[in-house]
Design brief:
Blueprint: E1 13-17, H1 30-40, E2 44-48, E3 53-57, E4 63-74, E5 78-80, E6 83-85, E7 91-93, E8 97-100, E9 106-109, H2 117-130, E10 135-137, H3 140-145, E11 162-165, H4 168-178, E12 180-185, E13 195-198, H5 204-211, E14 219-223, E15 232-238, E16 241-249, E17 264-267, H6 272-287, E18 292-298, E19 301-306, H7 313-320, H8 324-333
Length: 341
């Protein structure tokens, strides 16, 4: 670590790699909730975008990751009458400074998907800092390895029947076997591009040609779970432990329940089956350096494992009265030496 590690706030200064501040909705954004919690804990949140990361000669020799980052002063917020009250301005960025990335003992990689070339290259730059003792949440190598659709296959026995293929024949056969399916693009997020189909869907093969881009890209096909009408539960795990959940219920004739496509959030408790899923995932998530994870469960079946920028903290806090962001930061600050996982 750099000599700046002796700074009084070194243990609580944390960098958030995020989308530009102007794009964030503080009433819904989990990154904002975490940054505010860090500030309440006596620390200081800094932020940057992917474009602010670089690799350059390091003051201690060799090459290291650098960042052009801004310190933030975040206004407090509270939930009243069922919604978050957002002050104006809700954030005051300080003057940007260019510093070695290991000035920050903890870096949160919270850039929203897509996981494109820029995102992947950023994870490699973050690994330079990781090798100098920085704890990156979530671990860069795991961000690359854990596609949010495909990673669930590691726990296939917890899922609904699933097939991943680019072949129209394979997908059509699966649809006939299951009767009703959902088709998910592997790079999708927030329910975008998810399609319902059945063996009786007119033009099924044409639809499969469209979603696979004429058999150029694989898609995930899963048996449709009618229980989704009762909700798709987002469970937030911190260091493998479920700290809160929110149920997302489809509205307006939609089968998708994601909040981004109009799903209605409601408070939720975990069932015994859901706790068992979390218990099985926990040691694997810890071993992979996946400290902050959101899993989706429908009718007791694991659907997705979200590791890039899991959301839902604002809804859990507002609906359940659980100080989830504060609990997350408290666990991180008490987790032991920087760089431990």
């Amino acid at each position: 670590m750099s000599q700046d590690a002796g700074h009084p706030l070194a243990s609580t200064r944390q960098l958030f790699v995020i989308d530009p501040l102007a794009r964030l909705n503080p009433a819904k954004d989990t990154s904002v909730a975490l940054m505010q919690a860090l500030q309440r804990a006596g620390g200081q949140a800094w932020c940057c975008t992917l474009a602010d990361l670089s690799a350059e000669p390091h003051p201690e020799g060799g090459y290291g990751a650098w960042v052009r980052a801004s310190p933030l002063e975040l206004a407090p917020m509270e939930a009243l009458a069922g919604r978050w009250m957002v002050p104006e301005p809700w954030v005051r960025p300080g003057t940007p400074q260019k510093v070695p990335l290991d000035r920050f003992p903890v870096v949160w990689m919270r850039k929203d998907p897509p996981v494109d070339e820029a995102y992947l290259y950023a994870t490699h730059l973050l690994e330079l800092a990781e090798r100098r003792g920085v704890r990156v949440i979530n671990r860069p190598a795991s961000l690359r390895a854990w596609n949010e659709k495909l990673s669930s296959l590691r726990f296939g026995h917890l899922m609904a029947p699933t097939v991943v293929s680019s072949r129209v024949d394979t997908l059509a056969d699966f649809a006939r076997e299951q009767g009703e399916v959902v088709l998910k693009p592997l790079a999708g997020r927030a329910g975008q591009g998810v399609v319902f189909a059945s063996a009786a869907t007119p033009g099924l093969r044409a639809l499969l040609e469209l979603v696979t881009q004429m058999e150029a890209l694989p898609v995930m096909a899963q048996a449709f779970l009618p229980g989704v009408r009762a909700g798709d539960k987002r469970i937030l795990l911190v260091d493998g432990e479920p700290l809160g959940a929110v149920n997302r219920v489809p509205t307006g004739g939609e089968f998708r329940s994601n909040l981004a496509v109009g799903g209605a959030p409601e408070p939720a408790e975990l069932t015994a089956a859901e706790r068992a899923i979390c218990h099985e995932l926990a040691p694997v998530l810890r071993a992979e350096g996946l400290f902050f994870v959101g899993i989706d469960v429908i009718d007791g079946r694991l659907s997705e494992i979200n590791v890039t920028s899991p959301t839902g903290v604002r809804e859990v806090e507002r609906l359940g009265g659980i100080p989830l962001a504060d609990q997350t930061i408290a666990r991180l600050l008490s987790a032991g030496p920087v760089g431990s996982s």
